[in-house]
Amino acid sequence: MKLRTSHYLIISFLAAFTYFYSKDGLVATSVLYTAIQFALPLALAAMVGVMCERTGVVNIGIEGTMLISAFTAFFAGAILKNTVQGMLVGVFTGAMMGLLLALMAVNWKMDQIIAGVIINILAAGITSFYYRQNYSIPSTLDPIDLPVIGAWPILGPVLSFHGPITYFGIFFILGLWFALYKTSWGLRSRAVGEHPSSADTAGVSVSRLRYLNVTAAGAVGGLAGSYLALEAVGIFERGFTAGKGFTALAIMIFGRWNPLGALAAALFFGLTQAVTNQLMIDEVVEIPPQFINMLPYILTIVVLAISAGKVRPPAAEGIPYEKEKS
């Protein structure tokens, strides 16, 4: 039987849980809880890539979208003294980055790799130039206690008491999978990403659908950036996203451009980081912190090496569409 992403996820979670639970059940719960926190922004960022590339638009500007959205979400929350309003500003910023990418890729027919690089450079420059210290938000987004889920044995404490973006993100990913494979919007999106000329012949507006999907994907990237700034840590620094947008691209490929596959891959990445942190806390291994910071990039290289040649991207990915003249 050929192992898929979901199988790797199940094996990894069972191995980690068995190891830590044999030592201390509370430690095992903590590791899995932390894995979800690490995985959520990567999963949301991977959804940005799925939504764009399923429609035929390459988006390597996820890193920049997350960075500038985290920046605007944090400082809007600090100035307005309201983290919810800050989150909305972050989502709007992400949508504007998506709209900019759609403008460059669809209207101007720029090379989409270059368009993504422009977004990354723009975000890095703006956030570095306008960054100011001594700002703080009133508090991070409050976690939600789910008494019904929290009462479940073993998994209850793992799945309960996360922030609102975490729960929304999980439901969004499940909803995106359903929409992508079970609705007319999903069928049209996949058709535009595979055979845009055939979709156009069938009456689907390729340009309009790409604009819609890429802009909406930008909003999701804004939500991922807002999660980092307002729910996960409650601060902002230069280079805050630390390569998570690029890691999300590897997760998207490992997940085969499937929302559930990408979610499973993100959980695998999150679990790896959570296990490494716990091993350091337990002093089982002595790993320099610089290596921990390198871990996402090392895993990205490994995943791409494993996945290269074994997955097929959408056929029209990265190719500007020119309407055939009759």
TrEMBL record:
Protein keywords: Cell membrane, Membrane, Transmembrane, Transmembrane helix
Transmembrane segments: 32-50, 57-80, 86-106, 113-131, 151-180, 246-271, 291-309
Membrane topology: Multi-pass membrane protein
UniProt keyword annotation of Cell cycle present: no
Xref: InterPro entries: ABC_transp_permease
GO molecular function: transmembrane transporter activity
CDD domains per UniProt: TM_PBP1_transp_TpRbsC_like
Subcellular location field: Cell membrane
Species this protein is from: Actinobacteria bacterium BACL2 MAG-120802-bin41
Cellular component GO terms held in the UniProt record: plasma membrane
Designated name of the protein: ABC transporter permease
Keyword Membrane set for record: yes
